[in-house]
Batch of 4 targets.
Target 1
Amino acid sequence: MKRVSHLIFSLALFLFPGVAFSEIVNPIVFVTQVPQPDDFATIGSTFANHRATMASAPRGGDLYIRYADGTLKNLTAAAGYGKSGFQDERGIVVRDPAVHFSGQKVVFSMAIGAPERYDYNDYRFQLYEVTGLGPSETPVISKVPFQPPQYNNIMPAYLSDDSLVFVSDRPRDGSKHLYPQLDEYESTPTNTGLWKLDPIVGKLQLLDHAPSGDFHPKLDSFGRIIFTRWDHLQQDQQAETDANGAFLYASEAKGASISQNRREVFPEARSLVRRENSDESLHTFNQFFPWMIHQNGEGLETLNHVGRHEFESYFDRSFQNDNTLKEYNPNLVDRSNEYSLTNMFHLREDPTHSGRYYAINAPEFKSHSSGQIVSFEAPPELEARYIQVQSVTHPDTSDVTSSPASTHSGLYRDPLPLSDGSLVAVHTSETAADRNIGSDSEPQSRYDFQLKKIEKVGNYFRATDPIVSAIHKSVSYYNPDTLIQYSGPLWQLQPVEVVARERPAPAEQLLEAPERDVFEDEEVSLTEFQDYLKGQNLALVVSRNVTRRDQFDKQQPFSLKVSGGGAQTLVDGVTSYSVHSLQFFQGNQVRGYTLYPEGRRVLARYLTDSPLLESEELSGISQGSVKIFPDGSTAALVPAQRALSWQLVAQSGSPVVRERYWVTFQPGEVRVCATCHGLTAGDQFGRSVPTNRPDALRALLRWWKSSDRGESQTTLRLSGQTRSNRAFKSGKLFGGGRIRLQFLPGSSLSGEDLILRAVKGNDRCDFYSMNPWNAGSIEKRGKLARVSGKGEIQFLAILDGQIVAETDGRLRGKRGRKRSRARSRFSALCSSLKRLR
């Protein structure tokens, strides 16, 4: 689609009266959307709403601004985007606006183009920014640079450093053969989680690998990214019969062999068809809860550690043969929240009350994520057990019904608390489930979503007057061979207030005293150790005493002791369990289906990507596990930027306590989960978090110091897509010295010369390779160095994945040797590299 730059637009053409309300102080930006009555995997759905297909996201909507006097401007049209009538290569669909801290620009997502008849084109949502928002200004729209161009990028928000957090369906590691990731419900294409982009330097970072998807990230006033996460960690219901042709890939590799083995190793079975242990309860898990994460990707967890025990109304015990375990009933525990719910969509913080959040409690299907407006308070210092959900609109509005009571005031979505203390939301007076009340070629939705004031009437709030008049449009488009036509009011969605706001400082994750003391005792630099983790794409996960559990959690075993003696937390009259190891599972995309020829689902597989598994002293009894030390502590090196889960196992290898969520860690992250199920109100006896110095961490650091991992890091990986973006990641090398290796463009503009530059401090050495450079878009990985059978290090020159030259050098050294020796090794490295000229 080409921008219509040859037309000269008059601003008056795009300004027209709206509905004037003097109490709306600041401008509001919102989107319009051609109604789509289908609510499975479409643009308004609760999940799988990210695709830009014609069926999912009908073309014809726009980005609007409503000024304080009620005047409207079509921003996209004024900037030369979009059209009425037949939707061709100029047709657009717009979504997810977010306002910059300055109040002077808005980032949003847009897909451009629509097909001719019988054509099928791959359209992608991409991120754009618009400036020139004033009534007399001409809007200018520009595409955000360095975003993944081949994938759907949606739901952006600005972070404190002006980078962007957003949702994308880019594969976790960029491997195209893994696209699309399929969700854990019905194997529908989903987004892969939260991503962060620095649009100045082009750095892209995966913050959260979500097997079923993340949604609507926002930056709150405390510097936390808050968002809704779909948690569906359960066995694959699509593989319970042969109907979908489920099979298993041997690995995530392209061309990996396949088998018909449908057995899963974690968690327990969801149906009798797959049940292997008759003592275990069947397990299903499906919720949309609020989560939080630091801006650097560390500290991922549910918001304030809130969970099922604070929000849900019922779930079963894990073992049916243990009557000391109890089914969960909120009336039998001392929790503050009296309003149970499973879903929270469209989170938004109140700008007049830090820590107060509005959300939508809605059904998973049928209503385009519209339902009841609720609110709750969750500032960082508030413990999860004190979080209370409040009904803003009547509880009847939380679900669809064809026979509403007088208290059902319709369905709501996209709540927007304004800086003047008032509340706006999207509303439809319809209460029934949406469906197509038109025809295939002329679809009609029951819903007439419109921006309205939300005001208190009696005991609850409800929609009153619209703040924007109905916006009508006539459009037509092919999908793919049927001409779809619509003429009528557009949905008004996703309002945001255009106002400057304070830029919050990023929240930090600091290492607490017990673990910090262990690093000091063992004379290991935390920074140096984290550099090692980053170079290996690993994180460190530590627990202090896994026998201590939250006092509310009596659905899984809670009278625990370490096998062989040591820490124990035993409750009188309750069945006790011995635990030996902490077993990890990594989320691998290895489930395929003959019914769905593209994409793979994430399955829990035994942890393999950890060097710690090689240690007899530290590894546990079961595959992918680490030992629980006598003090109850554990320490594990785990792969970063990949979904992980875990369970406590007995010496027999049988599961005892299972984690219920997927969790992602960042490279270099040191994460402490002091107990197994973190404490909200104290442990089994009401005690606070244990403060012992974990012996498992001490043993891990000693192992690290005594192994090659404490000496040098000899493997650096090459990744990039273009010549201008070729760089090796930083790493630690040779006796504590730091070294950076980079491919840089050569002196020739043709790109035939390459320079490999090694840099240590202000020292550097270069060598030239005259092999031709492939200037096309590529993504290759290869080792720079490898250890030979003689204990020597071979340095390799690699172009496009091929070794073109190599040399040997005896450059290994122990940690802690004198800096002069490290410098001499650096000189030897330079000499070795120069021999490759």
Note: Helices lie at 11-14, 75-78, 308-311, 513-521, 526-536, 695-706, 819-834.
Target 2
Amino acid sequence: MASLFKNKRSTLERVEKFVSPVYFTDVNLYGKIYPEAKDLTSLSVWSTPDRVSFDEASKRPDYVSTGVGAQFGPTWTTCWFKIVIDIPNKWCGKEVHLRWDSESEALLFTTDGKPLQGLSGGVSHQERHTFTITPSASVSCLHYEFFIEMACSHLFGAGSPTMISAPDPKKMFTLKKADIAVYDKEVDALVTDLQLLAEMTRELPKDSIRSYEAMYAANEIVNCIDVNDRSSLKAAKDIADRFFGQRNGESQHTIAAIGNCHIDTAWLWPYAETKRKCARSFASALLLMEKFPEYTFACSQAQQLSWVKESYPSLFERIQHYAKKGQFIPVGGTWVEMDGNLPSGESLVRQFLYGQLFFEKEFGTRCKEFWLPDTFGYSAQLPQIMRICGVSRFLTQKLSWNLVNKFPHHNFVWEGLDGSNVLAHFAPSETYGAELRVAEVVKTVTNLEDKGRVSHSILLFGHGDGGGGPTEAMLRRQSRLQDVSGLPRVTLSTPDAFFSVLESESRNLCHWSGELFLELHNATYTTHARTKQLNRMCEQALRDAEMIYSVAFALAPDVAPYPGEELQGCWKDVLLNQFHDVLPGTCIAQAREDAQAINAQVLNRVGQLSDGALEKLFGTCDDQNSGDLVFVNTLPWSRSEIVSVPWNREELSKRCWIEGVDDNAMQKTECGTLVSIVAPSAGYKVLRGISSHKVSVLAVETAPGVIRLRNQFVEAKLNSSCEVSSLKILGGSKELVAADRLANVFVIFDDIPLYWDAWDVMDYHLETRKPAVKQVVFDCSYVSERHS
């Protein structure tokens, strides 16, 4: 008899190798999960550079035969496969799976176009290679046919050489596996048990009795299994059942496990691919709901569900069915999971407005929880906006990414600028892509900052960022971890059930007032400024259009009907582009270009709407020689602006008079006339051409390369690099630029972060300051008094 004394390291590795998918699979237990396999009866393919519908692809006459080992691509190509399956008679009564690995994402369809399940290939912990054809093969139903849509990209795009690099446009994808196989559920269950026992051995404290009990139980199971004798499995299962049957005490912490598949609406892939990611992920989620009635799945982002409704209507109907059953749970209340800092306050309100309207219309409910697990900080405006929109709960985990200071709470009351407060929960596991591993369960408790204050914590499980969602293996692990001594309870739950418990314990919680600042990814405030500029222009244009049309409609409803649907469509496009990897500038170039094109279209359309409303209010101004221009101020306060008058230079010499505008408020330039106009709140100012007036602006070169500028307000001196050496307000003696110092200094810094190059600007960049220019003024011509 072998010694009962066990070396923990060697025993643990023995168990791990016994269930390894890589090592010794010809003699270990993992290699027996699929004891028999058979090639597909036939496999044919049709490829296209476009993303086409099932109807179009299924009717193509030009499919060609293919097989395992063939390569497909390049990146973003779509390949449609027809597969024919004939299950052998000897497999009757056995569970049969399709096994598929195309090193890419794929979606399985029935022959009538019903999306069944997503398939994720490649070597990754997020793989999903199998689909259950039948749980018990029957002699009356052994022939099957399917379609598979293969997207030539990985779950995380096609970046090379790193994940966040630009996509490799020439990348090819190999069909590594395409067959059917008998699935041994009992073997797979024991593999899961041994994996969990090994994880408990490793993750529980070194001096934990339960850790050693797990090790000895696992070792005993390995000893009693003969991989070539299925009758040995019963004794092994009995050992596992005894161990996992030992329950917790009443005081044990409870983990609310909630399925999700956080899908970035664009990131390392464009919007068009996200639409297919949604179909793959949601179809997989619904299939699990059929098998596991207790399984729940939380889904945010109304935009993604709207896409599914439009492109996959039968799938959307099934989503609505499971939503009524309480398994598919809409959360978040927003149009997308937007950036939490860059959108305007009005945009943040519209995110909730259109999100809540969609969820109420399609699912009969408004969301109570703001669900934003992955953005780069959270504005102090949000609690007030959330409360106004009927949302009183908030979930994230992103502040766990802080570079310097650990955020002090996982459960707290978050207070906004006006005193509004919401109940906040940060998942202590610090992820939204958990796999229900023992390490995640242990971390949820050991990392919890509010020990003794709360009895429950959330664990969000399911592959995320690129989608995918929960797997059957995760749910098997949850079943074993539901109530086992040595670990917190892990129960399948819902957001509402969790927050209801947290609300009952909220008297114990601390308060946090103001912004939730992320100490990382600060370059997202400036990266790809054009995207941010277009967003702000769209926000302003939409606000102006709504104000102008409201006035026009109020004055003449028959002449100027309010274009509500068009404006809502424009708003939804802008809200889409506020997604937390698009507006910050952290997506690939293709996604960024898509967003900029969409916003440019919005600006054009909104401009047309505003022009139409203004014409109805003031008439047309087609004739430049009419001499009248109207400047409309849509803001609720008086506004002073410098505007450029769109008259040609010949006209400028004839007239430049503005009703109610001071003579010194105009200046002629090479590009036109700049005019200073003050318009009343929510009003307008008329420009009429009658006569010209002079404005004095002084420009003097006091020394080679040194310029003195003066108008009626200020006087400044600039050197040859356009740096300001002196600035004074006329009528006063105070010098605003300190002696021996310069203002308006243009400098550059090295910008090389640790990894996230589009996201981060590190503090050490301040040590690399260099002048950006040496000299910009080389030959200065001037006049002492220049008049316009």
Note: DSSP finds 17 helices and 35 strands in the chain.
Target 3
Amino acid sequence: MEKQRPTSGGYRPLSSELNDRTPFQRTNSICPSPESQLLEAVLQNNIVHVKRLLRNNPDLLNYVYTPEYNKPILLIACSDENVTAGTVQALVDAGANISTISELDQGWSALHFGAAKTDSTTLQVILKALNHPGDINVLAKGNNALHVLIKHGDSTKSGEFKRCVQLLVEEGINVNQTDNNGFSSILLAAKKGFRDVVEVILEKSPFQVDLDSHQLRNKKTARDLILSEKLYDGPLPGEVTNNNVQTDEIQVLFECLKRGNENGFLNYRNGDIERVDADDGANTLLQLSCEKGLAKAAHHLLDKGADPNRITPKNTETPIKIVAERGYYKIFKLLCEHPKTEKPFAYLLTTFLKYFENDKFPGLIDYQQCYSYLMDQLRSNSDQMSFLINQQDDSKNSPLHYAIRYSDQERIDELLDLGASLGSKNKSGVMPVHDIEPKILERHLNRCIEFDKSGKKYKEDFSVTFNYRTLIPPTSNKISNVGKDVEENLNESVMQELVAETEVIAYMSQAPEFKHLLAHPVIVTFLFMKWHKIRWIFTVNLAFYFAFFFSLVIYIFCSYANFTHTEKSSFESFLVTVSIPVLFVTFFILIFRELFQMAVFPGKYFKSFENYIELVLIFITGAIIFTNSPDENTRKPLAAISILLAAFELVLMLGQHPRFSTNVVMLRTVSYNFFKFLIWYSLLIVAFALSFYIIFSKTTVGNPPEEDGEDFFTDPGKSIFKTIVMLTGEFDASNLNFHTFPFTSIIIFSLFIFMIAIILVNLLNGLAVSDTQMIKSSAELVGHIARAQHIYYVETMLLGNILPKNMLAKFEDLFCCTSGSNWNLIVLKPLAEKACLFPRCKQFKLTAYPNKGGEISVSTSSCCFGYCNHIKLDKEAVKEINSIVRMKREESEDVRQESVCLQKLEQVLTKMSELESKIDTIMQCLPE
């Protein structure tokens, strides 16, 4: 941070550099925000307005102005050259925290900014506001306020510069304090040639000034510089020794640590340290030892009783975080072994994984050893492994996020095997499954199938266990007693919230590189069980819609569309009497269902084509029910469209069932591709239609002759419709007028037949057949994909927020007894629990018996509410399970054979070594 600046040159003080930023601009809003008003008032020194704003909004003092300044208003006022001392005084009087620091500005506080500003009146206000006498010596990156003034103050303001130095010295600032380079204030002043500063320090300091203990890199002391440059005319103080000044013990210890003099630290007063938790305003002794990588010093402090978790206001990083960031293995192990050390597992794991591939420095830095030691600590706490391995850092990144991005495959496999979740979301909504390689995920899924490899495969009680831990997003654990440490809290009961269990699988169903994994037995069995959990929702929804559909059809044909106006039979009257109330009830249920989906996930709702069909159906059905006696021309189109849309919706709803999902997927895929290609060639179709209109339209004078049939080429619209009909092969060439332009009309019509009717139609038919064959060939996978997406949609509906988050926050503010964040659980919790496979079971395991027809067993019956133990997997799933079992047995056998071969090879090498030894013995016994 130190810069060489001449006393008169063109260098700018750091305070000016910090303030050369884009000023805060008012927007075009009619009512500017309070924070923008306060900033403007401070910059304009409108003290009256500042006081009024802070009187009404005292919290504005803590507001951080980003990205223009990245600090609160007091630090802005102390650093801006245009802000007067009166404005700063108004902020201090309003309660501004004088100790607030700016991390982005080298950890400076108001005192440092005021010193760099070189304004004696502002600095005087700050000095008066200091809470404790020792606060004047607060350090920022090793610099006190006098260091900052000498390094970054505006020395061109000679009068103000000297007055600022005098204020600090007279207030008792430690003039012998050294910065991180070991330079004292007077040494810096002498180095820069600041004669006035040297004079003030020597004459005004209440303490004896040390001119000899600190040296520049060229070995020159402050005394040498003052004498050689003639910076002081009076007599200089004598050399500081133990005989004329009592050296502060803590300062000596900090000096040793700053210089890396570990032996001097350990030998000072024979290692007898009374204040082991002392700090210099910036670091504790232990923090500084950890920062410098001094393992012996850290060990000595811990043995003497230093607090391993103690921090300072300037350095809020605990010692274990400091060593983790730097990879100091020895100190990290010392801190982990200390019984009082609080271990932030998420921070430690993510840090080690982030720097896992960094270079090692033997005996000092080794991130891999730190990681291995921490993992051993985690394995020893197996009861809380699942919770600890999924803890997140400040960006909500889990250790698995970092392992996938920065580490190797072995680390990824290790975390997955320990239960790291693939569904842990960071602040950007990114899950680890987004970045993991498909091959790594497939191997992990294979390891999620557990069975007794030594057991008989064909026994009836042969079982296979599926572990779904990594597929389930981590749950939020609410700890009851925040005052206790982490280990004690983890042993208490926690509340496990419901999560969207199929979120990871839903992503895999949409990512092309993962789709094939949906046929894996682990995924298949999970989806199979999830379907059995939510099929009651499908059944209820389908039954309700059947009632709506049939009541609508009966009402239309028996009452609404009775166009013959004949008297109804008694049976028809009965049907109408029954259908009307059923139609009313189901219609309003349909409206409620759609409104509920809109409220929970509006973005997802309006991206679905099926939902638009439902909305149009609701409006048309409403018109049919509530319109009073419309004419026949209105009723017929409404009735026809409503029946068609209702039938479409019924087909799509039936497609949600696994048995029919493949058929609906074929319909959707073929329709989408057909219309996509048809739209691409629509230009040719329209061109032919307009050509037919020009060629085949009849131009007659007087009364046109009466002819059978309708002429479709009387206007361009009818011509386009007729051309589209002709795509199906219905040419009706006998009614076409080839006589007016015989040559041209025949050529154009022939081109249409070959290019459109033959080539294009066959191309579209071939495309449809190709899509159908492709879907049929992977019908099982297509069914799994459709099932996964439908299950995830149902889950998101049941676990989403019924009311918008901002409305929930308002409720929570108005009614303190109502928790807005849990309001949706109060309403939907019973349904959500029935839809989730593991709402209570923490083992996340399921056992299947392939030789019992795929019978299912769950360790805790409450996980499935008693239904799981009566379900059997389908034959394809059982076949896949047997295939995986066979493959893993073969792999195990290969490993066993390799081990046997290695043992035999070692025996051979041992015997050869013994034989060689005997031959040497014999050779030595033979005469030369």
Note: The longest strand covers residues 845-849.
Target 4
Amino acid sequence: MAVSIRKFTLIWICLGSAVLLACYIMLNSLLLTETFSSFAYDTLANNTVRVANFLNEEVQKLDDIIVDWAVWDDSYQFMQKKKPDFVRSNLNDRTLSSLDLAFIAFVDNESRVVWSASRQADGSFAQQLDEAVRELIIHQTKMLLPDDQEGRIRGIAKLQDTFIVIASCPISDSEGTASKLGTLVMGRDLTEAIIKKIEEKTRLRFSLADHFDSAPLGRLVRTEHLQTASSDLAIHIYDTNETTLSGHVKLKDITGAEQIDLIVSGDKEILKLGQSASLKSSLILISGGIALIGCILFLIERRVLRRILSIKSQITEINKTINVFGAKKEVTISGDDEISELARYISLYISQITNYKLNLENLVKERTRRLQEKNVENEKIRQKLEEAKVVAEQANKTKTDFLAKVTHEIRTPMNAIKGMNDYLLSTAVTDDQRDCLIAVKESSDHLLTIVNDLLDLSKIEAGKIALESIDFNLRSVIESTTRLMLPLANKKNLELVTHLDDSADVVVRGDPARLRQILLNLTNNALKFTKLGGIAVTAAAARDAAAGGYEATITVSDTGVGIEQARLDTIFEPFTQGDDSTSRKFGGTGLGLSVCRQLVGLMHGTITVESTPGQGSSFTVRLPLAHGDYNNIYAKPDAASPQAAPLDRLMLLVVDDNPMNLRVAQKVFSLLNQEPILAQGAQEALAFLKTALFDMVFLDIEMPEINGIELCRMIRDGVTTPLNKDVHITAMTAYSLDTIRDECLASGMDDFITKPLDPQTLYERILLLHQNMTGLCRYEHHAAGQQGADTPPDAQGNCRTLNSELALLKLGGDSELYREVCEGYLEKYNTERIDISLVQARPEAEKLGFEIHSLKGIAQQLGAEKLCAVATSMEKTLKNHEPCEDAAFARLLDAARETEQAVKDHLARTRPKAD
């Protein structure tokens, strides 16, 4: 919110003056109040000391009297019993009354009272001593101690309800040379008359009280220490009420203890005078401050604000008429001070601004014209850029399509070459033939490597490579990758060694496939350019506390030809090699290192090279890797090879429109102990899928009429092929671009492999499926409650008790072999034997799991789908470390009985007739 200068000045002057006045008034009031308060308190303290001094004078008077009597020769002779008429002559009632004594006592050195007298209530004296007085002078004070020859005790004491002045003096002769014969003790009441007399002399009111009887005096406001002739006194000043102050001091009694409270009263007239003076001075200051503020505001308004507002109004008027020819364009203010000078400067600036405005308008018109011309030119350039962009996008699309077509055309014949070559290598051939086949294999592998490098580089540059994030053991990946290169190293008589630090034996999370690709490229390069010596692979993993994972360092060193220093900066560029003759000598495209650098960059790592020509090179890769989970590694089965662990036969369907590709697929699958059903085209595949239940389907993508993607959608729809709606479908194509892969997976396919078919890749895919599937029983959730034998599945694909047709199909139609399987089942796995085995194995989960797994295996071979489904469900329960319920065992036995009966029925129906 905007505030005018007038308001701002008024507010801040008033506020500042008010704060200043308030501070001054508070300080003035504080000083006046403090001064008057101190004066009042000091006066009361001095008055308290005056009263204490007057009380001491009363004590001193009695002390003067007792000295005259104690050092009198007659008193001395009386104590010697030499003056028997001493009492009658000198201590009669008249004498005692004139001395105004309350009591008198002559006490010998053995504390025996020789003679005493006490005032009675009627004013007469009796020759006796009150017990309270006797107790005081004999037991509570030191006035009668025999060793106190010169001591004299005097002071005030509280006896019953009254205060009394007491003095004592040793009895001796007038010369003071005789020995002490006793002590003379006198007491005088501190009567109201004496107190009133002291009040009249001091013009003060006071009172005495016993320390234990004193009532609270009010709020303590000050404590002062004053020195008197006899002692230092601590005087406490109390604010008793609205009109009275009280001074309090503790006096010592005859015993030397501070047990007597002297309380002196004073009024608050001085304090009231101070408050009145403070109030009057504050009013005077406020009045003067208001008058001063008014004068200041008047002067500021007249000399400053009014003139500034005049400048403002003139500038506003000039602004309204700035474009009017001949209108006033200057500010005029009377006077000769800073404000009038400001007005002159403003007038000067207005004149300059007017000129600038005219020049600026002309300049804007000129630049607007130029901008319009530039916009027209830019629009033409934009149109050309749009056309160039369309051309570039079309060229890029053409390049991508061309790359896809080229790789497809290369991979299609390579599929036949590699497949048939691998099959021939598995047969009995001569050594010369084997050498030729190996040469063919190496050449085809080299060609595929070039194709893969081109595809990888293209996908990286297009940003279409997605890294996986899975758990793996770093040491295992490096060792397995190095082992792959051992045959090539042995062939070249080179030593390939690994030096893996213990720290590399860790489980990390990342993309092991891309890491393996990097290592293969680096190791392959090292082997390619090394003739003598060897290659060393070293690795270590250091904890990265900041990132919460590891930093893996992998180095591949060789003793090869090395790289010139000038080439090190460009060695990772595409199509770049150590020198111009490298490609002719060693072959290759120069893409491997470029792919390595791109992959390492995607993993947020670095790759560096050190090399000396003629001595070798060393490539170092540093990768940040996250922590992995050991359970995800060691829970998985170890990888195997087709030779190490042959697969059980599954129901496989291979679909391709190319007869050569089908023959190659049949040969490659035969290496894996598999006999797939071959379908040439989609229509033939649909015929098979309608009548038989398959475990896995391999689809070619490029087929006439109905391609692989359309066929997959028809299968997944379930209308045409209800038996195989959920079958595992794997795309099998020579295309390897991610766009094709994504399209296949989006259509409903489960996996994607590229041609040429690799036996090891097929083995891993089938092994993985074999471990995760339930064999013939893929509908275990429909198993419970199914009845009957040899009943066909319904439209939803429910399990059958015995699917003998499919089992025969898997056995190649060998009915005799299937009869042997059925008879073996009845002999070993009849219901009674199953029941006994389960009862014996049930207490031990591991043994029970083995029995159920064995039963599931024979059920798969037999085609007992319902029994397989129940066994699979129980096996999953046991793998989750959960107990199987009684109902599950009951379902298993029911399925076993139904299966047994169905097998018997099948054997009865198919028993061969006697000739």
Note: The chain has four domains: 16-267, 469-634, 652-764, 780-909.
